[in-house]
Amino acid sequence: MKIKKSEIESVIGKIQNHVDYNGKKFFVEFKNTLTFYDTNWSGGTKNQYIGIDLNSLNSKSFNAPAPWFNPVENTTIEIPEHKAILKHTFFCGHDLGLTLYVNSIYEPKFLTGTI
């Protein structure tokens, strides 16, 4: 779902330290699994992924290896409780925004701003 920055100002403030982004395109998806794709430039698209601990706000970024040796591409992972995955998407050099993937148990808390 696409959301306005003002709707999740508190969450954006928490994740802003983990990515260099000042744009206005924010998306949130509530799901229990995520498949990594386009971790290398592919047809003009590249996604960068960052794992975030929702309790401590510690993060860990992922730097994709060379395309011919990329064990992460098309790998599906489970999104555990208290964790989130932040995806930063680029297409043909243009920043397309951030997508935050959060475990579906957080949907009610997220929508009320209590996360």
List the helices and strands and how they pair.
Blueprint: E1 2-3, H1 9-15, E2 26-30, E3 33-35, E4 45-53, E5 59-61, E6 76-78, E7 83-91, E8 94-102, H2 107-111
In words, what does this structure look like?
The chain is mainly beta and 115 residues long. The chain has one domain: Immunoglobulin-like (Sandwich). It is 10% helix and 37% strand. The chain has helices at 9-15, 107-111; strands at 2-3, 26-30, 33-35, 45-53, 59-61, 76-78, 83-91, 94-102. β7 and β8 form a beta hairpin. The radius of gyration is 14 Å and the shape is globular.
What labels would you give this structure?
115 residues; mainly beta; Immunoglobulin-like; six-stranded mixed beta sheet; two-stranded antiparallel sheet; 8 strands; 10% helix
Task: Give a short summary of the structure.
Helix content is 10%, strand content 37%. It is mainly beta and 115 residues long.
